[in-house]
């Protein structure tokens, strides 16, 4: 399967299934404990957002989760981590089965994260950006005691502005570098990415978190790219002006989040590397997965406490990871 853009510049298809699961059920899918299954892959940065937010808000008991393996073929993500390669709740081997149950002629890629309606086996949504906001807003009745405010109303406009630039320039920016099909497209993408990373470094030099003095949705969205930067994007996607570990402010910021319950405990570096180096065969035709880098330094002191801030605001950290 080819990922590099033959025309030069990589442009992501941003049309997703816009159906929403809401408290009032206006799209036909009301919030109901136990009704839905969140399907993710630890390898995927977009899915990693949903894993983090579900855990921070304490939705484990009301929204089950299914994990795809780190690789997929041209057709679909698969449940090859489960016994027999079948999801134990949905009883399907491929996520595409849930997509086709609702849309028999679904023409786009089968993406994670996706939420599936368990009674019908049909996909509800794969709109990853709206999904995590709805976890904060529409699922509020089922948040754990002490759940943080990841999308507080007074800060939403600023969170939206920061998150938009993070998405276009950083989250998608690394892909724009990695999938560029010409030197000029790559050069332009590289410059845009590191301009944004320099802006983030400047913003975070004097404040612990991106917006306000607590963790918000904006931090979740940046973290999932930063945590993949040195293992994958620096080499595989040629984002190599510096490693994350050579950008002092962002490196300390990323370690601060990684060491916060709900962030680092959702990360699997092995699956991350397997996904990118095995799936992108036009970039890495040998399928060789690098052994490095040494990732033990994620646990070293970060010193960001000196900037103040209250990671969970008036709330509390999530408890131990649910089995």
Note down, in words, how this protein is organized.
With about 325 residues, the chain is mostly helical. Helices cover about 35% and strands about 5% of the residues. Strand 3 and strand 4 (about 120-125) form a beta hairpin. The two termini are about 35 Å apart. The mean pLDDT is about 95. This is Glutathione S-transferase. One of its GO terms (cellular component) is cytoplasm. Keywords: Transferase.
Q: Can you give me a brief rundown of this structure?
A:
With 323 residues, the chain is mainly alpha-helical. Helix content is 35%, strand content 6%.
Averaging pLDDT over every residue, what do you get?
A: 96
Strand content: 5-15%
As a percent range, the share of helical residues equals 25-40%
The total of beta strands comes to 4
- Biggest β-sheet strands, sense, barrel: 4 strands, mixed
Tally of contiguous helical segments: 9
Q: Could you say how many structural domains there are in total?
A: 2
Shape: globular
Tell me the CATH architecture of the largest domain: Up-down Bundle
Rg, Cα atoms, Å:
19 Å
Order of helices and strands: EHEHEEHHHHHHH
Instruction: List low-pLDDT spans.
Output: none
Structural class: mainly alpha
CATH topology of the largest domain: Glutathione S-transferase Yfyf (Class Pi), Chain A, domain 2
